[in-house]
Design goal:
The chain is built from 5 helices and 5 strands. With about 140 residues, it is of the alpha/beta class. Strands 2-1-3-4-5 form a 5-stranded parallel sheet, with helices on both faces. It binds ligand CA2.
Length: about 140
């Protein structure tokens, strides 16, 4: 192993696979965590996964990543479009991070077009379905010595 990646899924992503398959596909959150772990293992990383519907819990997990993680993969859910605090947490820990969106946010409502993370993310993967998480891991891994 060359290090650990923190996988963060934000509000409502626990509903994956149960609703809105036309937008988010049929994979569950467990499927997402499993495929991310598999992609990470291929490039020598392990994964700690967290999903929460609570912004402060996500921020605490990001802060804790300073101790033992080398990078973060995050799908912030709706907080993408609202949260300066999440942005501050990610810039504060200064770990490389990938912003992932399952759906193509630019093809959806106008309010989804703005991301508070976009300009500070190391990697962005948007609209590639759940495989985007694997792509994010591979792109981050390529940047980590
Ligand atoms: O496309 C993405 O991954 C999003 O980050 C998902 C967020 C949405 O607010 C962003 O604009 C784009 C929503 C996550 C909610 O996930 C659900 C999954 C299944 C059923 C209902 C919600």
């Amino acid at each position: 192993m060359t290090g650990r990646i923190l996988l963060v899924n934000g509000p409502n992503l626990n509903l994956l696979g149960s609703r809105e398959p036309d937008v988010y596909g049929t994979a569950t959150l467990t499927d997402v965590e499993d495929l991310t772990r598999a992609a990470a293992a291929e490039v020598g990383f392990d994964v700690r996964a967290i999903q929460s519907n609570h912004e402060g819990v996500l921020i605490d997990a990001i802060h804790a990543a300073r101790e033992d993680c080398v990078a973060i993969v995050i799908n912030p859910g709706g907080l993408t479009h609202t949260s300066v605090s999440l942005r501050d947490a990610l810039t504060g820990v200064a770990l490389p991070f990938a912003e992932v969106h399952i759906s193509d946010v630019y093809a959806r409502e106008e309010f989804r077009h703005h991301s508070y993370l976009h300009d500070v993310a190391t990697v962005r993967v948007i609209g590639e379905g759940v495989e985007g998480y694997a792509s994010a891991v591979r792109q981050l891994a390529a940047l980590i010595p």
